[in-house]
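Ticket #4471: structure export looks truncated?
Reporter: QA, pipeline team
Priority: medium

Steps to reproduce: submit the single chain below to the structure queue and open the exported record.
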Amino acid sequence: MAYRLDHTALKRFKKAIVAFNGDLKQGHRQILLKVGSLILNDAKKLAPVQSGALRASGRIERHSDTEYSVAFGGSGTQVDYATFVEFGRSPGRAPPIRELRTWSARRLGDEYAAGAIARVIARRGVRPQPFLRPAIKMNERHLIASEVTNVTRAWNRAAARYGQP
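Actual output as written to the record:
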């Protein structure tokens, strides 16, 4: 069996690789958004609820064509505690009392208990209540299966377009 390699074959091979890469990127974007939405929905279901602000702060952020993230809290959301809910807080420094006043008023009926709560948190810490990491773990298989399918499809399309005549 012989395969003749000439200039025309190399041009076709280059076109096939470029097409494969384009198809791969396009499919990858769609997969990231789809799996990101699944992760976001599951994380919202798993998030502990006091006021609903943590759940409402969840969103998908686009950083580039091929980079997205699922985020909770952060600037503009009035939810600065998402990290502490997910990972907990070790004993040590007390959290800002102003952030505890609203919770204390709603939960205990006394906003002035916030100082005592801050001291207890400083002494004992806060146990983690993971919601985002379990959601990622739940959807890991969707991401892997989708990417395998994407690579196979892109390869088959490139092979069909630029295969051996």
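Status: closed, not a bug. The export was complete when the record was re-opened. Leaving a note from the reviewer for reference: Helices lie at 7-46, 53-56, 82-87, 97-108, 114-124, 132-162.
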